[in-house]
Every structure is written in C-alpha cells, then in structure tokens.
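Both lines are given unchanged directly below:

***
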Amino acid sequence: MSAQPLAGRRVLVTRARPQSEALCASIRAEGGRAVVIPAIRIEAASDRSALDRALGELERYDWLVFTSANAVEAFFSRIDAIETAGSMGKGHCRVVAGARTAAVGPATAMALRRNSADPVCVPEDFASESIVEVLGDVSGLRVLIPGSDIARKNLGAALRERGAVVDEVAAYVTAPGEMGLDGVEELERGFDAVIFMSPSAARNFAALAGGPERLGGAVVACIGPATAEEAERCGFRVGLVAEVHSSKGVIDALVSHYRQRS
C-alpha cells in the first residue's frame, strides 16, 4: 500500500482561489497534484444596507449563526470598515453586543476565533441543518444569519418553524469564476478527480467547462449531500460524498477511495 495514496493523481480544486490553499496543501501531502480552476469568486455585496442595519442593532440578537468562514470574514470586515468610518463604537464587533455565536464547523469556528468571537455552539455534524438541533429552544429568540447572496434558506426556515425570529442578510456575493487559458489547458490534460465544496461550485464549473463530460472519467468528490445533489443535477456522476462535511472529510474520502483501488 502506497504511503501517498494520491501519488501521481491530478486533482481539480474548484474553490475560490483565496480559500483553496489549505485544500491543495492536503492533496499535496498525500502525493497528489492539486490544480485550481476557481468556479466561484467571493466578493463584497454591492448592496450592504440590510447587513448594515443588522450590524447597527446587534444588541437585538440572541444568536449570530455563521455557516461558512467566508460569512465570518465578510461580516467582520464590514464592521471594521464601519468602525473606521466612525459610525460604530470601537470594539463593538468584538463583543458582538452579548449575542451568542454558532458556527457550522471547525473552519468557521476558527474564523470566528481569529476575530475574537469564540463560538459557543459548533455541531458535531458539519451541516447547517445540524445547528437547529444544537441551538435548542429558540422560541421567541432573534437570530441573525449573515451569508451569501445565494445561500439556501432552509436553515432560516427551520429556525422559524421553531419560533425564532430570523434575519438572513447578504454579507458577500458568490460570483462565477473564470476558466482562463491556463484552465483550459489543464482541463484538456485531464484529471483523476475533482472536488466540489459547494453547490454553486458544481453549477458554475459545469457552465465554465461547457458541460460535465469535459471531466471525462474523473472521480467527482463532494463535501456533502446538498453539493452532490446539485452536481448530479448538472450532469456530473458523483462518486464520493464526504462522511464528515469538511475539507478534511473530502480528502479522507479520496484517500480511502484510492487506497481501496491499490
């Protein structure tokens, strides 16, 4: 059995480039060659009025729920900008007005800690739906969910069903990536595997590549069932779904797959 199960394997990473390095490092550590063709870009929301209103009234919220590290960074970057402009008290964001914070998984929790906001709730199952269970009784509580402009609304809907008052605001925009000439050349060389970390990555890559058939027989690995469902809807044949919905979970799934084939 090879000590590096991904040795000689070309693995396509479709994450936004700034978020891809840790995943690429894990692939390289297992002997693989990571190639980044970003299917998405993370940008600041052009209309931040709803976010700004929420930031100005943080004391109204009992819970701040973050479903991605991108949401955390966009949320605190906006607060820093407002503080710099002088329209919000210094340090206001660091104590988040006494609200409790919840994170969907360890990467999101780490992003919160980098911004001096220690999450009190991190579900063992790294899926947004799991937050509903671990938050407990939310009847009558106010919950703020900063996220992407195209984020699924199932979490907010589930919390409302349990009696919470939920505000979902766009903290950032998920825009389509660009293939570029280098990306086209890499695609023509072929891949052994491709990783999709979000439904939008699968959807946008299908459009960028001109169809799922451009991946040939590459193993399609997805971070979770929602991403796998969207990938299949786009015509990809999903081969692997991470048991643990995290970057490590995806790498573990790929490693296990190739070890079984060796």
In short: The longest helix spans residues 69-85. Residues 81 and 134 are 32 Å apart (CA to CA). The domain at 10-39+177-261 is CATH 3.40.50.10090 (Rossmann fold).
